What we know:
Blueprint (H helix, E strand, L loop, with lengths): L4 E5 L4 H17 L2 E8 L15 H25 L5 E6 L3 H12 L3 E6 L4 H7 L2 H8 L4 E5 L12
Parallel strand pairs: 1-2, 1-4, 2-3, 4-5
Amino acid sequence: MxxxxxxxxxxxxxxxxxxxxxxxELVKAxxxxxxxxxxxxxYPFTGVGADxxxxxxxxxxxxxxxxxxxxxxxxxxxxxxxxxPQRKIVEQHVVHEGILDxxxxxxxxxxxxxxxxxxxxxxxxLGSEALRVLGRASVPVLVxxxxxxxxxxxxxx
Length: 157
């Protein structure tokens, strides 16, 4: 199997960047290309009525600026490893759908992404985008495990 078109979702976190090294090695091994994607939640507000739409323009401007910063950081790392990537900001209310839609749009044959290593209640509440992508992707997904997130516990617990 050959991976010629690899998609690397990034969110600005150090954990997400851990997957970049693996993606670059695969790009070099297969002579392929790399696309970075950052998904912006296009409508994070909840509630009923027009009152909740106020601030949408400001939110999107800030969210897109954060996405650009995340892509800049990832691109800098990837370039330092010898690969010049393509990059995309995608506005999508559901992050994993934005990743999967982008994979389909660019004809990706592999998605390389990180898992933040959340456990317990935090994982239940926050979910796992990597798990959602893995369960719904029509192409292979390489999940790079981030460091396990542990919380301080009282002695004896």
